[in-house]
Amino acid sequence: MNVLMSGDMAGIPAAEVAERAKTHESTVVRLAKKLGYRGYPELRADLRRDEEEMTPSATVMRGESGHDLSAFIADEIRALKRLPHFVPQEDLDAAAQTLHASNVVYLYSKNDERPTLELLARRLRRLGLTTVLLGPTAKDLAEGFVSFDAKSTLIALALREAPLHLPTLVSEATRRGGKSIVLSDVPGYRFRPSPDHLIAARRGDDTEYRTQLIPMALAYALQLAIFHLAPAHYQATRDSIDDLTRLLGGADEIPLRS
């Protein structure tokens, strides 16, 4: 992936990609299929589109596929259907087990991904997990991360590109004995240093307009996977949250239980 993303690769055959990456041509073909393409030629065509000079239509959101609602929904459904192809259930369960064993979960992303990060934090809090949303500046990060320890887990979003401080945070999490999880939309990319768990799935096919539906779906999937590790415990926590909500005057927010 590092070789393919290095630029001006649209005209390079698979054999040369393999040579530059010091691997076998068959590995390049397998990578293309893992990314959801039928083969390397289809991946190369996609690279060519990315490298072509921007045309007036490409500056418009969904310039490749239009604003038609049916086409938009079809693209998102296609991305959702292939999600299990990219994320094996055992990988999701392993990340859930790490979160289940954590005392505190620290969450980090770029500002563009903050809505998804906040959704993920809320899903975890609904299970009773303590969360810390890390701020954007170095000082904010230091103040939020200073209490990270061996019973903590870092979750970071890395969509399109990794946040600036991600390598440092992953390295520091490991040094302190904790765990790290990265949610990405670039399958096959090797993060350095490597997180304990990498969950990567492609988003929609339109290169100019990719929603955060896939990472949001992963947030819900993680919540479900954690819940089913200890259903009685987490249901009791959810019931307690509902009871406290009513006690605090939020009865209209929670449906009554029989």
Automatic annotation (TrEMBL):
Molecular function, one GO term: DNA-binding transcription factor activity
The HTH rpiR-type domain, residue ranges: 1-54
Top-level taxon of the source organism: Bacteria
Matching InterPro entries: Homeodomain-like_sf, HTH_RpiR, RpiR-like, SIS_dom_sf, WH-like_DNA-bd_sf
A biological process term (GO) from this entry: carbohydrate derivative metabolic process
Pfam families found in the cross-reference section: HTH_6
Classification via PROSITE patterns: HTH_RPIR (PS51071)
Name of protein: Helix-turn-helix domain, rpiR family
Species whose genome carries this gene: Arthrobacter ulcerisalmonis
